[in-house]
Known about the structure:
Elements: H1 5-38, H2 42-56, H3 59-70, H4 75-84, H5 92-128, H6 133-162, H7 165-171, H8 181-190, H9 194-219
Amino acid sequence: MLLDAAISQPIVLSAQVAASTLPLFFVFGVGLGYVLGRWRTPVTMALDFIVTLPLVFPPIATGFLLLMVLGRAGPLGRIIKSLFGVEIIFSFWGVMLAAFIAGLPLAVKTVQASIRRDTLKLMEVSSVLGKSPWTTFFRVTLPSIRKSVAVGLFLALARTLGEVGVTLMLGGDIVGRTNTISLEIYNAVFTGEFRNAAILAAILGAASLGILGLMHCFTRE
């Protein structure tokens, strides 16, 4: 059954998207979480609002706005097409971007909260002792927030697997190209292929439970 293209293709695509976004979550999640937790200025407040917006804004509306910006007629879409010859919309890149945008707030907010709660005092002590900002970041900040980083990464990864709204707009749900597991469950139900929907739902549920189990393993004392 898993060899059926209608089942295997969405699984492979979702795995590729997850593998591609995970390092991005680490880099941007830790980076933005550090900046937003460390400083409170009008600029960081505006950045915090933008990062948090996908958590509260309807995903389908978020996808529509991105479609207008990144589409062929959109300002950024035209620039990217002319510079790199890449079309974001209705491609793997659109699916990956949708997953990244959906999961990033979870990675950022956990790191941000951890820094504001516990780590700022340690960073101040390190600075008083004469340590450089880079030394403080790698030897004090990162070790202090490592569990929060792990939680944020796992939550963001789980969010990407269940993403539908933004992915539908940016990826287009093209069968065989941009239909992730979540979208294919909808497709299977819509066409009456309930067996495929059940198999994919079970796989998605197992993956989510596996991520949850790993998160507990990495964060327990």
